[in-house]
Design a protein that fits this description.
With 272 residues, this protein is of the alpha+beta class. 39% of the residues lie in helices and 20% in strands.
Amino acid sequence: MHGTFGEDGTLQGLLELTNIPYVGSGVLASAIGMDKIIQKQLHERAGLPVVKYVWFFSSECKAYVKRVVAAVERKLKYPMFTKPANTGSSVGVSKAHNRKELIAAINVAVEYDRKVIIEQGVKNAREIECSVLGNDDPIASIPGEVIPSKEFYDYDAKYVDGKSRTVIPADLPKKVAKEVQRIAVRAFTVLDGAGMARVDFLVTKKKNKIYLNEINTIPGFTSISMYPKLWEASGLSYPELLDRLIGLSIERHRQRSLLKTAYQPTSEWYKS
């Protein structure tokens, strides 16, 4: 399940109500992981390195686009990325190199969500991904790199043209790779993630400066997707990974089932 109603906490809430164990994050982490703005605010407050960004309600963008563009240009420099706050797979995402492209990008983003986020572009950035596995004590896989077929990793580059490539493990200095893993685990725990997540980064080519891009609480999970491929390269086969995830879901469900959901007062004075 991906995207709206599958990844955003709504399906997770239904499963909680029906008392069914399920793989992956709960209602809170799923909802936050889907909202790029809330996610970034929490990661920023946790001291994790995110790019500069601004956000607006779509209604504001439609009514006062010139004012919005002026506010964006005061804080960010071109190029920049405009995104709907709550979509996946780069749907509605555009790269803007100038004011004309920014206005067009905003007009696209508002079609998909009631909030829009605009992020500072990172020059000469590499797309680095890291898989996380666990509940209260998560671990990170080795990092991998995505080499997009286009200027950035948009929907077509991900799913249509078939020309994007992956490099596993990513060619990073050991110190940088370990820091990517540390930040990935921290990003996961800040959101109270569970089971699995893929954490995406931007790493500059020359100085290896790391920026946390976003966390995906339900990553692609085919046998050729990055999440299982990174774990396979880390020594955990696809069948073993499935077993581990199912075990984690049962563990979390068992923990929740032991919690009290009702309270009995010691006295009922109000009845006297």
